[in-house]
Amino acid sequence: MKVKIGVYDSGIGGLSVLQELMLALPGVEFIYYADVDHVPYGEKSREEIICFADLAVRFLLEQQVQAIVVACNTATSAAISTLRARYTLPILGMEPAIKPALQCSNGKRVLLLATPLTLREAKLQHLIAEVDKAHLVDLQAMPCFVRFAEQGQFHTDEVYAYCCRQLEKYQADEYSAVVLGCTHFNYFKDTLRRRFPEPVRFVDGCQGTSRNLVHILQEQRLLEYGEQSVVYYMSGRPADSQQLSFINKCLQHLHNMREI
């Protein structure tokens, strides 16, 4: 039986994770679930997100997936512990890559960009307390990035003005890295680069999550090599031609962002 992996996000942000998974797992069938009926998640309550996440997981289980990647930092923060308590298959989440960013910081500061819900959840506060002993991490909410991404606004003047306004108080030369704590934020690396020129690095959790999934599949002897495929669902409905065209546009843009 061909291995099926479910990938779940509030919208198109998780495509950045899917892209890494597709590179690492050429013989897998992916089922991508974008919860477009309820995006954005970052401004909703924890209880709402748990409900949305549970619906997504149940749908993916109906597709007979062997593992699920919650490719959404906000859903991971709010719902991952509940999902793991309810279901027995492997459920992987996203964690802001603060630890690897700090390991290469050389004493300079690290800026974490995330959604409001991710920033206020206890999960993140515990992570920071564990790894940021020198108190080098600054936190900044960027909720409109999610809306811009879902609208396909990647290079507009409005996006750049918002970026400058939100990040005005941060001096680029004080930072070694910017942690992208929401998978939607990967679409804006080129805009962020205008505010944080090299040698500031952009760090996200996509590759780490991909490596974790490969390890799990190896342990369970589920790795296969063959024809890869992806099926896209929008809150449980098959993606239509217009949505598939937008997804392909997003994947191409993400491919370009990988070099930044």
SSE order and pairing:
Elements: E1 4-9, H1 15-24, E2 29-34, H2 46-62, E3 67-70, H3 73-86, E4 91-92, H4 98-103, E5 109-114, H5 116-120, H6 122-131, E6 137-141, H7 143-150, H8 157-166, E7 175-180, H9 189-195, E8 201-203, H10 206-219, E9 229-234, E10 237-238, H11 241-257
Helix pairs in contact: 1-10, 2-3
Describe the structure.
By secondary structure, this protein is an alpha/beta fold. It folds into 2 domains: 4-94 and 206-257, 3-Layer(aba) Sandwich (Rossmann fold), CATH 3.40.50.1860; 98-203, Rossmann fold. It has 11 helices and 10 strands. The protein has helices at 15-24, 46-62, 73-86, 98-103, 116-120, 122-131, 143-150, 157-166, 189-195, 206-219, 241-257; strands at residues 4-9, 29-34, 67-70, 91-92, 109-114, 137-141, 175-180, 201-203, 229-234, 237-238. The chain has a 6-stranded mixed sheet with strand order 4-3-1-2-9-10, with helices on both faces. A 4-stranded parallel sheet has the order 6-5-7-8. Strand 7, helix 9 (189-195) and strand 8 (201-203) form a beta-alpha-beta unit. Helix 1 (15-24) packs across helix 10 and helix 2 packs across helix 3 (73-86). It is globular, with a radius of gyration of 18 Å. The termini are far apart. The model has no long low-confidence stretch (mean pLDDT 94).
Mean pLDDT: 94
In the sheet with the most strands, the strands line up as: 4-3-1-2-9-10
Top CATH class of the largest domain: Alpha Beta
How much of the sequence lies in strands comes to 15-25%
- Classification by helices and strands: alpha/beta
Number of domains: 2
**Which series of helices and strands comes N to C?**
EHEHEHEHEHHEHHEHEHEEH
Distance between the termini: 38 Å
Uncertain parts:
none
Q: Any guess at the CATH architecture of the largest domain?
A: 3-Layer(aba) Sandwich
Q: Over the alpha carbons, how many angstroms does the gyration radius reach? A: 18 Å
Task: Please estimate the helix content.
Answer: 40-55%
Which geometry do the CA atoms define? globular
How many β strands by DSSP? 10
- Might you state the CATH topology name of the largest domain? Rossmann fold
**Main sheet overview:** 6 strands, mixed
Oligomer: single chain
Number of helices: 11
